[in-house]
Design brief:
The complex is a heterodimer of chains A (about 300) and B (about 375).
Chain A (H helix, E strand, L loop, with lengths): L3 H36 L6 H18 L5 H27 L7 H23 L4 E2 L8 E4 L2 E4 H23 L1 H11 L1 H6 L4 H26 L2 E2 L5 H14 L4 H19 L7 H15 L14
Chain B lengths: L3 H12 L6 E7 L6 H20 L8 E7 L6 H12 L4 E3 L4 H13 L4 E3 L6 H4 L4 E3 L4 H14 L5 E7 L3 H16 L3 E8 L7 H9 L4 E3 L4 H13 L6 E3 L6 H7 L6 E5 L8 H13 L7 H20 L4 H9 L4 E3 L2 E3 L11 E7 L2 E8 L2
Parallel strand pairs in B: 1-2, 1-3, 3-4, 4-5, 6-7, 6-8, 8-9, 9-10
Antiparallel strand pairs in B: 10-13, 11-12, 13-14
Classes of the chains: A mainly alpha (about 300), B alpha/beta (about 375).
Chain lengths: ~300, ~375
């Protein structure tokens, strides 16, 4: 008989799968939520920075010896740095000059940047999927009937570290305080001497670095990368950020984990055909009852 | 690819007789997610037409192959077909490997009375579109039966799980035909899970499959998803054999799947390890033409479809739509590199299937199954 023990094992395995998927959504969602919190607009190009991170890791991973811990960490750091620079570049070249313009203009421009990155990626990298190298040593651990891959553990571990680091930066450092000040009231922050340009650049750099890390972690677990790989995870992470309350950091993390877990459980059930539809339906239901998201408030929210 | 066009015109110009070329249109996935399919069939077609032209062409005229890339995007094949027929005035359309994309172009070929030959589309619906649509490969009811028998007799599996792509006509069809035959022969489908084209994470579905203790898992999908599925299955500790259909046929399957694919099988139309002289001759010519690359099923089928077309034009004595169509429909016992092609009343071909095994990261021929 399909006994209780095997049901529990299956449940725990799916929970683990869901957490590891959700951790990636959470990392990307953090970028969306931070930029919204500080600048009040959704950076649609964020999902493509995620894609660029994966490609940086792909090329970097060729130089570094395969399957070593330090090599993998080097690739991760390199991708995060590269994406931080890309994020700052986009902000400097595109968004800064649009700051006085209505938010709609910036939003549409962000969509334009996203499409530019995707199709330039297809031109430069070619549209065919590539195999991401196994930059970290890979192993599978077995806990009874549960199987955990080291890559999954790595995703969860790195995500937790990065989220804790983000909380530290936002709440315990000067620049973090400046970010919170700008998100509360940009004009007042300027009056007390906060350099808005630096704060905004830093926000983009931080958010993009997280997207880069997300790209590497995603590519580690799903080693087929292509220039359009950011579209679906980006959409889901955006949904996760809204789900948790846009502008709220713990909200983004919660939203990501929740969405990843729901998607995984539905994917393992008899309704697996509808897993994407159900994940988005959850968003609609939650917004009906809590329009500001799970942890969000309608008043001006701190980052 | 667009850059090959000038190459063609130069090649044909040097071997052509002073006669109007016969324009044939090709639409294929030369770039994008299933680039391997398009590039394979394209190489087979090019090789065939070059040979035919070197031998003097057909009806005293050389062939000119006009190629459009659909980039593996839905909707693009219809545009490509329209372009080739309306603007380039091709007399026949060759394409595609994917059933879904063939179904996009078929109605356009049918409406314009231009014969279309699909080299490797296996879903029955493709030729059901109309009397001008043909194929030179077997269809999925046969492929599903082959793999169902294989699961029962060779893998000795009575409990099988199916993991198919819900947004892919080929996958849905092949899963259905497999299920029907397998259940009818006494087997049990213990789990049937779905995913979408382009999905990367299958752990949820695989965990559910693992819980059902299947003895083998049938994955009638294309190669990128199949490779990721088997990799993730091995990560989850699922050790039973995985098997699939001709959608697995691509070098990227082994690239992405790696060691996880050992002990897996799939059915296809052709094996380069077949020692028949006509096959070995073709392999040699293909390698010489394309940088020492070994041809796969789609290269072989592309090659055969070009020759079937040339043969039909010869018999018809003209490239006019209705007469060419009738000649194609009358193709009997045409000997090609993928076997003997006879076009039946449904405009399908009845061909043997080759089952390939994967061992130590390499493909090896397992057996042939005759229709």
């Amino acid at each position: 008989m399909v006994n209780f023990f095997s049901l529990v094992t299956e449940f725990l395995q799916q929970l683990l799968n869901g957490l590891s998927l959700g951790a990636i959504y959470a990392l990307i969602a953090l970028g969306y939520t931070m930029v919204y919190g500080v600048l009040r607009f959704i950076n649609f190009a964020h999902s493509d920075v995620f894609m660029v991170g994966a490609f940086i890791g792909y090329y970097f991973g060729k130089i570094v010896p395969v399957g070593t811990l330090w090599g993998g960490l080097l690739v991760l750091a390199g991708a995060m740095l590269g994406c931080a620079l890309l994020g700052m570049l986009i902000e400097r070249l595109v968004y800064r000059s649009l700051r006085p313009a209505p938010t709609l203009n910036v939003l549409i421009t962000a969509i334009g940047v996203s499409l530019l990155l995707e199709y330039s990626g297809q031109l430069v990298f070619g549209a065919a999927p590539r195999t991401f190298p196994a930059i970290f040593p890979s192993a599978n651990f077995h806990l009874g009937e549960l199987t955990i891959s080291s890559n999954q553990l790595f995703v969860i571990g790195v995500s937790i570290i990065l989220m804790v680091f983000l909380q530290f930066v936002v709440f315990r450092t000067k620049i973090g305080t400046a970010m919170r000040a700008v998100s509360l009231n940009p004009k007042a922050a300027q009056l007390v001497g906060v350099n808005i340009d630096i704060v905004i650049s830093f926000t983009f750099a931080l958010g993009s670095a997280l997207a880069g890390a997300g790209g590497i972690l995603y590519a580690l677990n799903y080693p087929s990368i292509d220039p359009l790989m950011g579209v679906m995870p980006g959409l889901k992470a955006f949904v996760a950020a809204i789900l948790g309350g846009i502008g709220n950091i713990p909200g983004a993390a919660l939203g990501g984990l929740l969405l990843g877990t729901v998607e995984t459980f539905v994917g393992g059930s008899q309704w697996s055909t509808y897993k994407d539809a159900i994940a988005f339906a959850v968003l609609i239901v939650i917004l009906l009852f809590r329009p500001a998201g799970l942890l969000g408030k309608f008043t001006v929210e701190k980052v | 690819m667009k850059f090959l066009r000038p190459f063609f015109l130069v090649a044909f110009a040097s071997t052509a007789l002073a006669a109007d070329p016969i324009k044939v249109g090709e639409y294929a996935s030369l770039t994008g997610k299933e680039a391997s399919f398009g590039q394979s069939s394209h190489k087979g077609l090019v090789l065939a037409f070059e040979e035919i032209n070197a031998a003097g062409g057909v009806l005293g005229q050389p062939f000119e192959l006009l190629t459009e890339d659909n980039q593996t995007k839905p909707g693009e094949s219809a545009t490509a077909a329209k372009k080739l027929i309306a603007r380039d005035k091709v007399i026949a359309l060759l394409g595609e490997v994917s059933s879904g994309r063939s179904l996009e172009a078929a109605p356009i070929a049918q409406a314009n009375k231009i014969p279309m030959i699909a080299p490797a589309a296996t879903n029955p619906k493709v030729t059901q579109t109309g009397s001008y649509i043909f194929r030179v490969c077997f269809i999925d009811p046969f492929q599903g039966t082959v793999m169902a028998k294989f699961a029962k007799d060779d893998l000795h599996a009575k409990r099988v799980a199916i993991l198919s792509s819900v947004s892919n006509a080929y996958s849905v069809g092949l899963a259905k035909y497999f299920r029907e035959t397998f259940v009818a022969s006494g087997g049990e489908v213990v789990a049937e899970k779905n995913f979408s084209e382009g999905d990367k994470d299958f752990r949820a579905q695989l965990t559910a499959v693992k819980a059902e203790n299947a003895e083998a898992v049938f994955v009638p999908s294309y190669y990128t998803e199949a490779a990721l599925i088997v990799r993730q299955a091995r990560d989850l500790g699922i050790t039973v054999p995985f098997f699939g259909g001709d959608g697995w046929e691509a070098p990227q399957l082994l690239e992405i799947g790696g060691a996880a694919l050992d002990g897996c099988y799939y059915s296809t139309h052709f094996s380069p390890q077949n020692q028949a002289p006509v096959v070995q001759e073709f392999v040699k010519k293909f390698k010489a033409r394309w940088n020492d690359e070994t041809p796969d099923a789609f290269g072989a089928l592309g090659y055969d479809s070009a020759y079937v077309l040339a043969d039909a034009i010869k018999r018809a004595g003209t490239t006019e739509g209705p007469k060419l169509r009738a000649a194609l429909a009358a193709t009997r016992n045409f000997a090609g590199v993928t076997g003997i092609t006879t076009i039946d009343a449904n405009r399908d071909a009845s061909k043997p299937a080759a089952i390939l095994a994967i061992k130590d990261g390499k493909l090896s021929f397992y057996k042939t199954v005759a229709p």
